[in-house]
Amino acid sequence: MTSFREAIGRRVVSRDDAEAHGDLSALVVDAKASKVVALVVGSGRKATAFSWDQVTGFGPDASRGEGAP
Q1: Which positions ≥6 away from 15 have C-beta within 8 Å?
Q2: CA–CA separation, 29 vs 50, rounded Å?
Q3: What is residue 67's predicted lDDT score, i.e. its pLDDT?
Q4: 62-65 and 11-14: which strand pairing?
Q5: Where does the pLDDT of residue 60 fall: very low under 50, low under 70, confident under 90, or very high at 90 and above?
Q6: Of 7, 20, 32, 8, nearest to 64 (Cα)?
Q7: How many CA atoms lie within 13 A of 61 on its CB side?
Q8: In terms of Cα–Cα distance, which of 51, 65, 58 is closest to 3?
Q9: What are phi and psi of 4, to 5 degrees?
Q10: Alpha-carbon dihedral of residues 44, 47, 51, 52, nearest 10 degrees?
Q11: How confident is the model at residue 48 (pLDDT cuts 50, 70, 90)?
Q12: Other CB atoms within 10 A of residue 49 CB
């Protein structure tokens, strides 16, 4: 299991073409359900949110997902 602190800063990579989308800057949590619902990549106006359903892998080097947000 990975803590939020360990996850922040990991590279987010597309599973389809191995293109890097950027670094994980935040996790969006549904407090009532006690689960992560989205990943936020980048910051400011260039930040992009990916639904947790799009994530296909989450490892020590990178997070992988399908498609665009």
Answers
A1: 56, 57, 64, 65, 66
A2: 13
A3: 56
A4: parallel
A5: low
A6: 20
A7: 2
A8: 58
A9: -60, -45
A10: -80
A11: very high
A12: 14
Classify the C-alpha dihedral 54-33-6-27 as positive or negative: positive
What gap in Å lies between CA 26 and CA 29, rounded to an integer? 10
Which residue do the tokens 């990943």 mark? 39
On whether the CB atoms of residues 14 and 69 are closer than 8 A, the answer is: no
Please spell the DSSP secondary structure of the chain, one letter per residue: ---HHHHTT-EEEETTT--EEEEEEEEEEETTTTEEEEEEES-GGG-EEEEGGGEEEE-SSEEEE-S--
Which residue's entry shows tokens 């947790």?
52
